[in-house]
Amino acid sequence: MRPIVEVEALCVQALAKRGKDRIPLIQDVSFQIHPGEMLALVGESGSGKSVTAGAVLGLLPNALHIGSGSLRFQGEDVLAWTEKKRRGLLGSQIGCVFQDYQGSFTPFRKIGKQLTEMIRTHHSLSKATAKDLALEWLDQVALPAERVYDSYPFQLSGGQRQRTALAAAMMLRPALVVADEPTTALDVLTGERVLDLLAELQMQVGCAVLLISHDLRHVMKRADTVAVMKDGRIVECEATEMIRRRASHPYTQTLLHARPLLTDLDAGLDWENEEVVSSERHEGVDGVESLADREPAV
Ligand SMILES: Nc1ncnc2c1ncn2[C@@H]1O[C@H](COP(=O)(O)OP(=O)(O)OP(=O)(O)O)[C@@H](O)[C@H]1O
């Protein structure tokens, strides 16, 4: 089966402010993601995960540049994409979820308007049909669809925003979803639910997922493959089960030894009950926090 993403010996450099020096940010990074596979890229802050994701999306800032290596999406050379091509693929063939909702949504425009625009940018559908599709996906991610559709992003809780971002990333049934630290702004339990939802939607849509996280404990339950990144290099890339059984790199072992925290949580919490408490606290009894009843500030 042809991989969705093929990254081969990729090096990304930053241009130094003065002189012609180039500072290496990631070096010799290689991995593949196949249809339906979830690959988690994990590592500490600054290890190069977001730079790698930016390269895969063809979204590196101007100050960064690909020094060498190759990048393919569905067999096509990402480095040869024109801006028009990249914009056409983002949203339709490649969905994105970011840690900060402002990466996914414009703050002062209603969710519904943003979702229908995303749909209509890529498909010639009537407004009414696009609205139906958006509502269907808000419903799929267990949100009160009509109310969220009519809300501004800042009127939703963090968990609701990430559920909405997942709906937006998945609704056009992309081949790849890149989720860059989607749970960072959330409490542990809400983050777990968002990752569960990501895995559920992935199964439904059949897409590949590149999940970026600094926290190995968050990804071990769902990812098929784990790539561990340190100082700009992938030090280990294996099936999750192999990582669990016999991680070979000392850094991976260090990350694994940080896991008991989650194991404790798993053992000690009633997840079902906690979800209810959590959603009451964050989302109000009908699923939308009371802020949603306020008039927007603008
Ligand atoms: N636009 C940029 N210009 C110069 N250096 C950059 C730029 N973006 C990132 N870097 C550097 O590249 C390295 C990798 O950064 P990156 O954001 O990929 O790390 P990360 O693993 O995603 O970290 P975090 O988990 O904190 O998001 C860091 O040293 C960072 O300072």
UniProtKB/TrEMBL annotation:
It is a peripheral membrane protein. The keyword Cell membrane applies. Pfam families: ABC_tran. PROSITE patterns: ABC_TRANSPORTER_2. Keywords: ATP-binding, Cell inner membrane, Cell membrane, Membrane, Nucleotide-binding, Translocase, Transport. It is found in: Cell membrane. Residues 10-256 form the ABC transporter domain. One of its GO terms (molecular function) is ATP binding. It comes from the Bacteria. Coiled coil: none annotated. Residues 278-298 are annotated as: Disordered. Its main location: membrane. InterPro entries: AAA+_ATPase, ABC_Ni/Peptide_Import, ABC_transporter-like_ATP-bd, P-loop_NTPase. Belongs to the ABC transporter superfamily. This is ABC transporter ATP-binding protein. It comes from Tumebacillus lacus.
